[in-house]
Amino acid sequence: MENSQKGFIPVMLTPFLNNGNIDYPALTQLTEIYLQAGASGLFANCLSSEMFELSDKEKIQVIKHVIKVANGAVPVVATGTFGGEITKQADFIKEVSDAGVEAVIAITSLLANEAESDEIFNERVFDLLHQTNEIPMGFYECPVPYKRVLKPQQLADFVATGRVIYHKDTSLDLNQIKEKLKLIEGYAFGLYDAYMVHAVDSLKAGASGVSCIQGNYFPELIVWLCDHYNDESLNGEVHAVQQFLIDNMEVMHHVYPVVSKYFLQKRGLNISTFTRRNVGAFTTSEVKGMETLFDDYTSLRNNLNIKVFI
Description:
By secondary structure, the chain is α/β, with parallel strands linked by helices. The chain is built from twelve helices and eight strands. The protein has helices at 24-37, 56-70, 86-98, 118-131, 152-159, 174-183, 199-205, 219-228, 235-247, 249-253, 258-267, 284-304, and strands at residues 7-8, 42-44, 76-79, 103-107, 137-140, 164-169, 190-193, 209-210. One of its GO terms (molecular function) is 4-hydroxy-tetrahydrodipicolinate synthase activity.
């Protein structure tokens, strides 16, 4: 997913009806909103999608639905590893690949447990690559069940196989990101940073783009940042956007993704706040936080003359 332009890849939500079934009309609308906002790709079946609460059949159905709606406009990646023996994980990777994704994403924390060494992890990655033919792969340093961050040399060794084209980085460490980018220079590969606190610095360091939960509130703002992060004539505006993201980091993470679904409701999307994952109570405090966030975002968006579709 290498691209000369900086891109935003949303970590997609899964809309549900109030009875807990997947709301496919809302998923269609949500996918279209990401595309209209200018997303350069889509990450379906990820943690924001409540992937651990979906059955294998539902995972494939959601991925296929997103690919159908995207209709080739942008590439779609999706998670394909959910623990167990490497052979079992390889089989599901093939199923996800057959759905039509650009790359299948492996969860780093599901290839080795927290107590196991990097050597064991590496062996399993190479075994997984061997058992999945020529399927393009990627990594996601998902924080569940625990966060396993790849060391720069590990990532470089995997990318050097020619099979790994995508990485969602959650290290929260700008120096480590810079080292990763240095080691993989020249490969057809994209590193996407999840941590919006240093988004501008990460983009300037050479990251291919960002892949963050903030895109489930205001995707057009994240696209704007990717488009203008290096525009000297807009230094003040870029700083304001970066500071806005920093200032609102906590409120956007608390009882997520319920809060982001509520925020999208306020924007006009016909989406329930139902989630299958138990993230805690959505109280009046969270409602007030979203009301304030909505007002502040609306003001910022108007100051930047950003066009919105809902």
